[in-house]
Amino acid sequence: MNATQTGLLAGLILGAAGAFGGFSAFVIVLVVGAVGLLIGRVLDGELDLSDVLGRGRDR
């Protein structure tokens, strides 16, 4: 299991633990899972934040 999968799993588990039902719980789990996925991708080197933030290497 790589860091992307671990981050996604951790985010989903933490989101599920913090939410207790309804549509708001779904949204919370979705957001926390997405954050975990992004953090995992950064740690794996699959996502370069300078590309996302608009800061290129030529600056």
What characteristics describe this protein?
75% helix; 59 residues; single chain; mainly alpha
Summarize the structure.
Keywords: Membrane, Transmembrane, Transmembrane helix. This protein has 59 residues and is mainly α.
Protein architecture, described:
The chain has 59 residues and is mostly helical. The protein has three helices and no strands. The radius of gyration is 14 Å and the shape is elongated. The relative contact order is 0.19. It comes from Pseudonocardia hispaniensis. Keywords: Membrane, Transmembrane, Transmembrane helix. This is Small integral membrane protein DUF2273.
Helix/strand structural class:
mainly alpha
Number of helices: 3
Helix fraction bin = over 70%
Q: Largest sheet, described in full?
A: none
What is the end-to-end distance?
A: 36 Å
Q: Classify the beta-strand content into a percent band.
A: under 5%
Radius of gyration: 14 Å
Calculate the mean pLDDT score and round it.
76
Task: Show the helix and strand layout.
Blueprint: H1 3-18, H2 22-44, H3 49-53
